[in-house]
Structures
1.
Amino acid sequence: MIITPRPVRHPPLHFLAFFSFVTASSIAFAQAPAVRSIIADGGNSDGYDMAPETRLEVVKAANAKITTLLPPGPFAPTWESLKQNYRVPAWLDEAKFGLSVHWGLYSVPAYHNEWYEKHMYAQFRAWHVEHFGPPDKFGYKDFIAQFKTEKFDPEAWAELFKKSGARFVAPTVQHHDNFALWDSKVTPFNSMAMGPHRDLMGELAKAVRARGLKFGVSNHGIENFQFINPPKDLADDLRAKSADLFDPKWADFYNYADRSDAACEKFLINWWDRNIELIEKFQPDLLWFDNGVDQRYLDPLKLRLAAYFYNRAAAWGKEVSISTKKAAFSPTNKNSETIASIIDFEKIGARSPSGIRTGNWQVHETIGSPSWGYTNDLKVFPPGVIIARLADTVAKNGCFFLNLSPKADGTIPQDQQDTLLEVGRWLKVNGEAIYGTHNWTTFGVGGGRGDGGPHVRFTVKGEALYAIVIGEGPANGDVNLTTLAANPALEGKISTVSLLGASGAVAFTHGADGLHIKLPAVAPCRYACVLKILGLKMNPPTATPDGNPI
């Protein structure tokens, strides 16, 4: 198998150009159009993008009514203070692989996706009526009683997570429907008071941490305020009947009947209270937010919450971080100038960097299609696809954040488990090419989504260069890495090449046409073999204290 550079969207940076590249200022970095495309330096969208459709005055009014005192510590609720005091956690830079979980009321209908609440009052209305009845008789709230989670075993989940090779877990503790999966004192709409009558996330956090994994929380609740938008005929009917969306008992659950400024203030204060409760209850290692926190008018609340979280973490003696999308924590509206937050990209190839992005960042990816939450038609990706996407992300200097989709009864489907366990088995052999690594001068050649064709991804740790050759075992036992052809840009001389999982060194020749490697007839693992190459001078780590690109 000859691994040759195929035409790629962005040519790889050769070694000398790399050092020129890393010494450029972040401003120059962000302003170069080609580089901006490579690193995905996108800002906030002009629309509300799931944020409450409100104004700065309303946010300030809500902020003024919050009585929670800021804990003592180095962080003040200003961009300047956050920038001065924040540092990316060492554990997050090392991890490279984490898990998220989308699980909630939407797992009960298991239809289309996790936005069921939004769609059941509009385009899925006929399907909902056929399967559950009209909304005035069976609204989204009625899924709470059916969300029994009777087979949920947090110990089994945590053991699966451990075996997957993931280093941290950050489940969605409430999605856009704002139903809390923990024992809450600040909202009655929670899993202890209703539905399963269990502190689901409290149980899971204990089991996960008992296995040495970091535990974070993913909060999508701010999207709830204007999540539901039924057509006029249905809204008029429910209003006339004081049913479901207009039932006063459920007004604070749906946030539909009243969307006044006063209602928005109340909602924002409760969003704050829930986050403080999550921080105090879980002492999360990672506090993750979805799109809804992106808008600049929410900055007063976000700054205050960040200062609270980071001061509490300082008192706990823990390294923690917030993670957000786009430019939620960037007053300049460039995600390459984020303050006190790790940028998260949704989906490989869709919005994520197409090439190397230095600093620290994540890619959030599903284990199957078409949904984040469990659906009856969810097709789980084979292990080779997930491993290829993991390698592609890490080779570009990112952290791979893989989502699982449990059923409403609390079971993780066997096909998801099988894929996850295969990833874990691969990492057990090849983890040294993933954990604690950083990008080389080029991330690789060929496709990176597990979509066929020979391709390779490079990572670096210390003075070792790893070549992750994607595919189920070596073809004909021969590999030629033309990217490593002998040339003046390669400093040093290759001394040894070994295959992770195999004993001893492998035979190779190095010349102007590439690095020729003879591999054993039997591969040590499926899906991707990893070559460890020593002797060349490697580039230094490219992580940054603030997480932004160099």
Note: The first strand starts at residue 2 and ends at 3.
2.
Amino acid sequence: MRLLNYLAIAAVFALIGLALWRYYRMLMRYSDTGFEEPEGKDIQTLVRAVNEAFIAIQKRNLQEMNLSRREYEKRSRRKAELRTALKEAAYGNLGAKGLVKAYIRDIIQEPRYGITEASIDDYIPTNRPQALTSQDRFEILFYVFRKRYGERGFVHMMVDTGLNRPTLDADGNEVYDVTKERIGEAYAQVMKDIRLSYSDKLEILTQRIFESFKGFGAADLLFEATLDEIDAGVSGIPKGGFDITEKVRNQDFSYNAIWILFQGVNIRLSCIGFGSQDELVRVCNNVYKYDPPHMLSRKDAAVVTTMKDGSRVVVVRPPVADSYAFFVRKFNSVASVKPEDLVADTNNTVPLTLLKWLIRGQRNIAITGSQNTGKTTLLKSLISYIDQTFNIRLQELAFELSLRYAYPHRNIVSLQETDDFSAQEGLNLQKKTNGAVNIIGEVADAHQASYIVQTSMVASLFAMFTHHAKTAQALIEALGNNLLELKLYSNRDDAFSMAAKVVNIDCHLVNVRGDRHIERITEIVPASSEPYPSDRKGLPASDMTAEDAKEYYKRSTDRELFTARDLVVWEDGCFYLKNLPSEAMMEEIRSKLSVSEEEEFLGDMRMLEQYRKGAAA
């Protein structure tokens, strides 16, 4: 009997000992920065360990730690801040990203894991350049240039190393592609005289862990770069879309397709990629979640929204698209919004002077051009010419212009469409907000064309908008057809006449191999606004001439409803004056100016005459 008692007591002590040991292991596992030492020395192992550490930090029960009230409240605030940062870091919040990276930096230096100056090269072997991957080289170069040049680091990285220049592919075609070979050559060129410190290596490793943990994968650093757009999943074979035959099995997959729009040129970064379809899907499912109108799903397979920094995000997935893909349009790639910094070609005083007075004269202006020509950027810069006393109202599909950041001291309100608030409701609301100038972010369909007619004719002094038309003729025809489509007019001539009456100026932009510039500034002259011959001669209204009769019958039959007059043209890298505004437009502009402004305006118009092509200097 005693033996059984001893055995029972021993079993109880063994159970207690086991429980204490497991409790001790739990405390070690769930300490503020502790985690079980992972096996192996690869970055993905580190990522899993960091994830476990953050879970442990969030799960730890502070009430069981016998803390003072002050310490308890302090740690509670830290947990709340971290919880928020972990959520928002995944949506592109740079402040939250910085906080999470600080935690990661501390975690990976925890003694039980042992990241030290001696061991850090086991993860990114900067001491053995030949062992570095192309992604390692890309991220090290990015870090070095950003450390040296700050926000413009990526620009210097691309330009100083020539990575922005085209090369010839195997077929002799000129392509823009930062290949693994090119990034290797750039790395060898830049890093031959540079030695990274332990602090540098720790920052690079921390970034690599973050981008797989909460960031945007291999594209994460690009979101901090000064560039125009980031596209992913847009080339290569869509994973799982079709059966892959042996013939194309070694081709690139869409999950390794990362492209950027840099200084107006589309450049593929084939030196980096997401590595797997799961990683591309993870990034696509995170990149749009800052403030989305709806969640991405098979039913709603496309999302258009913005990030915290104002970038426009478009995400698509099957079945709408043949692959998961995202498009992030950044609007901070231009350091200055001053017009003279954007329009910098020879004789730039011609378009700048004319645009200034067209805006001061309250003309309705369309900024046209294909994608990536800089329409939005130019529109943003031209706001500086608008009278400071005029209140500005914007209607956009999604917030893109971010005018309040560029002009914080001006009276500006922006509205965007939502599922429950239409653009028409936004325009109706704007009429009650003391607005003077109305801006439509982009006119891309019939309803938006009708908004231009509304805002130009009622409740605002003038309007500005962007459009994808290639010519002034095409612009008026597109707007006229939009009005017919909505059945606002039943007669083609009436619709086209209204469009020509509403749009006074077409400022057209082009992108020629990365050189974005104004190609022309064109005045739209409605036929009805041109005077009759007797009016030009100053004859009384009763003295109708034969020329007047001829003109009348021409206008009543098959006469063109409007005329497109080029005012400024761009040729051979220079701007030239082709025509001054028509007499009617000159009078309209003068009627909006003060006496002193009118004198300055007329002086500037005389000054522009010297910039006619072939004019004497």
Note: The chain has 21 helices and 17 strands.
3.
Amino acid sequence: MSKLLSAKNAKLMKEKINLFGESLKLVWKSAPGWTFTNIVMSVLRSVFPLLLIWLLKEVVDDVTRATTSLSQNINLVWPIAAVAVIWFLDEASSDFSGYVRKKQAMKLEIYMYGLLHFKAIRLDLINFERPEYFDCLTRASREAPWRPNSILNNLVSMLRGLLSLLLMAGLIFTLHWTLAVLLLVANIPGIWLRLHYADILYNFQKQQTPESRKSSYFNWLLTGDRPSRELRLFGLGNYFIDLFKKSFMKQKQEEIDIIKRRTFIELISNLFKASALLITLLFIAHLTISRKLTLGQMTMFLLAFRQGMIYIKDLFGSMAGLYEDSLFIDDTFEFLNLKENVTAAEPVIKTGSLKKKISVENLSFTYPGNNFSAINNVSFEIKKGEIIALVGPNGAGKSTLVRLLCRFYDPDSGNVKYDGQNIRNIDPEEYRKQFSVVFQDFMLYNLSAGENIRMGNIDEKNPEDKIRSSAKTTGVHDLIDHLPNGYETIIGNLFDDSRELSWGEWQKIALARALFRDAPVLILDEPSSALDADTEYDIFSRFREIVKGRTSILISHRFTNVSLADRIIVLDKGSIAETGTHDELMRRHGIYFTMFTKQSSRFNK
């Protein structure tokens, strides 16, 4: 049993050392020059205090001799000047080191955010269906920007503390070896305390991550723009204030209780230190009164012991800090090491504009945590230039199918083939360039109106004319043209000098963004849900002209728009219920006929 524990501890220690190594590599990569300067300054700062104590001893002894002797040959100017110079250098190096650490921390922070952001935009979209992913992301976002730098600073602090402590302990050892031992022993309880509670606080914070996210969610409900209207209409403010308080207090009260226990034990630890200081003071005072020490030596040893207490606290505190860092940095690497499963499988195949067709073969997909399939054994083809409509009741799997076609998810079984090639063998980024999509929950970018449209293809070199052309096609050009700064006007309500749009106007912008992208496949998921009747009629009466040359997939609950498709695929409970043209489906008297008839009868009344 003891061998197993020993092996386990050795493995844990090896993992922590590896994490330290990886963290230091990140620190060095982010700012090698500033990291080196930080180390050099820390070494220099370990020497100045000893010089200062020694010079103070000389000053005190010279002053004592000057006051007890009639000699006028004692020169106090140079030792006092030396004290002032060393003190200045010590203070200046401290200030400069603070600047160096701040500069280095800034470089590291932007570097770590870059790693987090790069990883976040490449991770599989399926992660957003898993609560544990959000816990992992929250912990990584909280620790990543500063924790690697904390590791470096703690290591540097250990180096400085060790050098300074050796110098001070060596000095104290010349007085009596027991004082040097006392210096070490007095600080042991405090170090044990920090190590012990580092584990407790880490495990507590890790367990509280879901509750912390819940508190953040309630805070967003109370302060965010999107929930603000319902919050006021339904009078939900006080209700969510109570939920926030309960969630917040649940996590904070437990943390306060842990800190309360730690504080009580810290008082006992401080008693050990005070006792050590008392013994040292009595010992040095006795030697001084017995004339075995000069006043200068007394001052030197007292200051050395006091500085030694500080350095040993810094040294062991840095060791404890490293232990804490080893616990928390794991959260960062846990996120950075998440695997990206939606990648190009060998052999990797180049792709380009659609030449023949997209084939869906026996496709099935289940969301994490569900015990039923969102898509179940679906097969169909979309020929180049064809307009396909996907219809069905809510939850039938229409939007999920679009995500599979775009390869945001990989299916549980079955394949999607693009011109006969399995999309698993195509680089996902290159493959997605062949698609332009208006999502049902499209993005509202608080940028200029022109930039909002240009987001459809940010790599477009000369986008101005094309932006205007796309805006005219969707009927939003006149609106943008009459904004205070035209296409340069910031839209949204987050920033100064911006102009908010209606939901229907935002939808026109999103549609223009999709058209701006020269992609062979266009997918429109409820593209007219917020459009006024005139705009919707104008767009869909010219729909074939607008999508000319593109293969198009239209998802809509408005059957007057769906009827213009070359072929309609009806989904029900994740499976294809029926397929055909509008006329063919109406003659079958199936699900489509029922849905179309109900909608038509409602409008005809």
Note: The domain at 357-434+519-604 is CATH 3.40.50.300 (Rossmann fold).
4.
Amino acid sequence: MRSLGFDRPDILLVTADPLVDHPAFPANLLARVLQAEGFRVALASRPNPEDPESLRGYGLPRLFAGVTSGALDSMVANYTALKRRRSDDAYSPGGRAGGRPDRALTVYCNLVRRAFGKQVLVVAGGLELSLRRFAHYDYWSDSVRRPILMDCGADVGIHGQGEIAVVRLARLLDRWLRDAPDDAARPVSTAPGLFELPGLVFRQPASRPLPDGVVSLPSHEEVVADPVAHARAYALAERSRSRRLAQRCGGMMVLVNPPADPEPHELDQVFSLPFSRDPYPDYRGAPIPALEQVRFSVTSHRGCFGGCAFCAISAHQGKRVCSRSQASVLAEVERIAAHPQFGGTIPDIGGPTANMYGSTCTSGKPCDRVSCLWPSRCRHLASGQRAYAELLSRASRVPGIRHLFVTTGIRMDLVLEDEGLVEQLALCHTSGHLKVAPEHVVEHVLKAMRKPSGKDFARFLEKHREVSRKAGRNQYVLPYLMAAHPGCRLEDMVETALFLQRHRLVVEQCQIFTPTPGTAATVMYATGLNPATLEPVFVEKDPERKRLQKALLLCHLPENGPDVRKALRLCGREELSSVLLRR
């Protein structure tokens, strides 16, 4: 700050991530965006939660202090699905666990308040705010908690993709304060138009009349008392993302403005900023595992219209896919090729689902569907498979690129629409293993997940193997699968294990469903009801049986043998032991 000639920032950003100048690290991305707008920005990574002096040294921010828990929800980052504390953290130098406090958003908002008092506007944001902006079930305390703005100590919040909303907020506050003779004389919370900003989350007394057009959700108290009200509140919020929403909590009302989702040209501008793709020098060369995975990867788009029940992407980024222009992506590939540490391989070009790049809605207006693919494909969805295939082809031809792979999830029901793309992925963009995410194969479980039929997975396997065989290549498909999702019983995992055996598949990674706030599957877990239909859903809450479900997917590993036998005995299927445990 001294070398840049200022003694206090316009904006202080506090994050639970390490400082890495890469667009996959949210606070650093926001810092670059705000800096490009002419604002003075300071970044504080993992300040000591017990020491307000760890923030006071930056000086009192002129406009606001923004707080995020980082790229991950802090509770998901710190605990396994069985509520055991994790032994590592991919977003820590050296991968060491313990640097990110539980409920980091609340901890750091309160730290900012202790450091600067009421002199600063505290703005909460990021994934943790987006998923908890309404009353929500919290798996780690096994309770329904209040909207997080009621507890975290922030004045306002920003939900969804934050760049556009944060810049608009900074511009509005800057204009307001520049007209004032004294900063302290005009509290920034009184700036005209503040509470009309898209993406803003704020509070007001419940006695105050609501603006016209607001959709009122069942109150926090109703959600706590009644599972049906809980399910209905979630379903109404999910269908009404493009409208202003309100939820009463005690004597207050939490209001949530529609998100400020970026347009394609705005996304192009964000990714054109001069990211070094390097960690800050403070870490003295200690590797940051999350950076090593994505350092030379490229984000081609944001948003996902799949609407999977267990996924938080639609709650945070929305179902509208915003794709960067090919020129923008190719320019980033050229910058990567010039990086001094680049070895010639781009591990991924993709987004939440890689082959949704270029997909659009031909209706041109928001709708209340929670998914463009479930329960059936929307007639307004225009798939972008050719656009994605062309993007991969052009990026592969950039000088300095020897290999370009696709490692983010492929939506198999979409890719099967274009045999040319299936062949291109198999022949040009698979590094020996192509990772896909069917999540399950049993039909009623897939229905609860809002996933396509398991038949699509079998068809994709057959096609990929056929292409690889004709090309003389020994390539494999590695499926990601999930255990203990609502609707899934132990018997369903037996059927999945048999499917894996029949199709000669080995699972490297399997996760036990973690009830993350802001998802339909978590509402199912908490209420036993499908929020879309209010029909009952089976929920497995026994930790031992969850563990046995996972063991069935990994039955090819010798150490899982005893658990597999126990699972089969509980299902009355002991005769399958020799089949599933065959080496």
Note: The two ends are 61 Å apart (CA to CA).
